[in-house]
Amino acid sequence: MRRFIIRRLLQSVLLLWAVMSLTWLLVATAPGGPELILAQNPKITAEQRANIRESYGLNKPLYEQYFIWMGRVATLDFGRSYTNPRPAMQVIGERIWPTMQLGFFSYVIGMLGIPLGVYAAKHRGKMSDNLIRVITVVGSCMPVWFLSLMFILIAANTIRWFPQGEGKDSVGAWFLHLMIPSALLSVGFLISFTRFVRSETLEVLNQDYVRTANAKGLEAKKVDRWHVFRNSLVPVVTLLGYFLPSLFSGAIITETIFNWPGMGRLFYQATTGRDMPVMLGITFIASVATIIGIFLADLGYGLVDPRVRYE
């Protein structure tokens, strides 16, 4: 177990270095930067632009910029934002908590797909199972941005059941502003969990050990708890791990549509504004969250399936 953890940690560090290096190269060689923002102001002289490039270190050779940047990243310093005269991590830090709220509630709502998938499998072929399958198929064909726009058009603008804006006036308004985008963001999680769990549960129900347990007269609840439910969770652990990064990276489309002040909307603003330090900072956080999610998923296999050995 210890060797497995050490080996995975070393692999994770190398993977993070590769991802960040490739991302930096793509962003650094792309057109844009602070001089592009300054170019929109006709009062800025060529000398001032050159001074700005020098202050950000953009006048140095590309390889030198890379090593300077890697040294700063080791101390979690991504430099100053191009559009906001503050450290990039300070700007990002103000958006982490709203994104975590959104991601946490969407995660919780999405996990309702686990009991829903088990229920559908246990009632295979019945009307409730067919209804769940139709809803998941239709839901998987509708992108989140389309559902979000339809919701805003109907529920917020036409019927006016829900307020618009950031919703900081009261607890009720905050809750509505949080739950609506969370529910829409969780649609993908909910559908994935439901379909995976239903499929795995059906496969487990046809296994010999389940038929043997039923033939021995074991109570149905115990069969479901110890043989069916536990074994059907093995692939779900993978999904739980991969969905964990959403707690931190948020959803760019959902946050932008609902004007939610999280990292997703900040990443969109940084991309359109060519704000390279903020883009790389958010990419770093999302990459770390993804690696942690995959690592926890690997550890979770051993908890739900004792046959898994960390060798």
UniProtKB/TrEMBL annotation:
Domain named ABC transmembrane type-1: residues: 96-297
Regions that span the bilayer: 96-119, 131-154, 174-193, 233-258, 278-304
Gene Ontology biological process terms, A to Z: transmembrane transport
Subcellular location(s) per record: Cell membrane
Topological category with respect to the lipid bilayer: Multi-pass membrane protein
UniProt KW keywords: Cell membrane, Membrane, Transmembrane, Transmembrane helix, Transport
Pfam families, per database record: BPD_transp_1 (PF00528), BPD_transp_1_N (PF19300)
GO cellular component: plasma membrane
Coiled-coil segments: none
Family named by the database record: Belongs to the binding-protein-dependent transport system permease family.
Protein name from the UniProt record: ABC transporter permease
Organism this protein belongs to: Candidatus Chlorohelix allophototropha
